[in-house]
Design a protein that fits this description.
elongated, single chain, 6 helices, mainly alpha
Length: 145
């Protein structure tokens, strides 16, 4: 039997699934970054940033980002520009806040933790900025969604 599931998908579905897909790819990139960073620096504090927290938080966060994008599309004509400005500002804010984190009394561990977190924040920020581009990409919509 040949089942054809080519039914029209709502914009909500497309936005949320685009966010989920971007989140999945971001998770993989963050995990690879985490492994490379820890192997190069021998950073061993893993109470906050670890495999479980990266997988859970990122895969929960990005469908929500997709829903935010959907909400902006319904509220504004220039939703893409507003979304990009909003998430660029959020990324810059989190980069600034990352630089102020004081994790331990050891200066080296503090620096290493900041660098690990900074890399993850930048990966997630750039990934979030890709949501509108993938949402409007016909090949992505036809091939993935």
């Amino acid at each position: 039997m040949n089942y054809d599931y080519d039914f029209p998908k709502s914009k909500f579905y497309q936005a949320m699934m685009t966010g989920l897909f971007v989140g999945f790819i971001s998770t993989l990139i963050c995990l690879v970054y985490n492994i490379i960073f820890r192997s190069n620096t021998k950073f061993d504090l893993s109470d906050i940033i670890n495999v479980s927290s990266l997988i859970f938080i990122i895969n929960l966060l990005f469908p929500i980002i997709g829903i935010i994008y959907y909400g902006l599309m319904n509220a504004f004509k220039k939703a893409d520009a507003i979304f990009i400005i909003l998430f660029l500002a959020l990324t810059l804010f989190f980069v600034w806040r990352t630089e102020l984190i004081h994790r331990t009394d050891d200066a080296l561990l503090n620096t290493e933790f900041r660098n690990l977190l900074l890399g993850i924040v930048l990966i997630l920020g750039v990934s979030a900025l890709s949501v509108p581009f993938l949402f409007h990409n016909k090949k992505f919509r036809d091939g993935v969604l």
